[in-house]
Amino acid sequence: MMLENKVVLVTGGSSGIGAEIARQFRALGNDVVICGRNAEKLAAAAAKLDAHPIRCDVANVDECRQMLDEIDMQFGRLDILVNCAGIMLMYDFHAQADTPDRLQREIEINAIAPLRLTHMALPHMLEGWEPAIVFVSSGLAYIPFPATPVYSGTKALIHHSSMALRHQLEGYGVKVFELLPPVTDTPLAEGMDTGSFKKTPPADVVAELISAMRKDRFEIAAGASKQLRLMSRIAPAFLFRQMVKQFGGGNR
Ligand SMILES: NC(=O)c1ccc[n+]([C@@H]2O[C@H](COP(=O)([O-])OP(=O)(O)OC[C@H]3O[C@@H](n4cnc5c(N)ncnc54)[C@H](OP(=O)(O)O)[C@@H]3O)[C@@H](O)[C@H]2O)c1
Asked: What is the pTM of this model?
């Protein structure tokens, strides 16, 4: 698909992979809107990226509605929605007293918010030009990471929903892409002990996304996520054991 002269909304565009998506889409001559919760961080990123900032917590329905209205007023349409905002919480499920709060927050931000925002944005997008949705899940959609007891599940949900929606929305002329990044060098992965695995630069992950979108390749397992996809199909138990050995995350 064409990736120029469009109106693009990148949730979580104030940091990491989202900021890099905003940068590369802007470089192609698109109007780019970015959102995030922290207003200062958002304003700084917007100035750097020459993007339009809208402060919005994607887990808040009213704020999402206001954001879509503002995009309508400013640009008159929305062509590409990139659902990139996300959090990853590492914790001991049993030992942590606030586990219920953590799991609810993670499911709301990573799983419910992108799907609900997509549903809310679709009426705005159907009038757009070659509309497309991008979901950012993770290589951990293919295999769980024991140290993050809920995160991988939220990403697996987005993986399945991306496949189902790709089929459902085709009839409305909406393309549905899914980016599955490997461990990427961003604030989210800061302090994560990746052992012998090197974190991938966000620029490389996003270059794969752009190249795949141009060719209408819809499931984009970037970098090492390709190996996770293959291994999760041919030897899932072995792969899971390797994840435990390499990264730990249990008490046994
Ligand atoms: N880094 C990795 O290794 C990796 C690997 C696979 C997949 N991913 C996925 O890639 C996406 C981006 O991650 P990243 O590594 O770039 O993380 P990051 O650098 O921490 O950026 C996350 C972005 O999401 C925003 N955000 C978080 N919660 C939000 C909310 N409720 N409403 C609006 N914005 C929110 C943050 O801004 P505020 O905090 O200001 O809201 C920030 O802009 C996530 O979905 C993540 O799960 C990352």
From this structure: 0.97
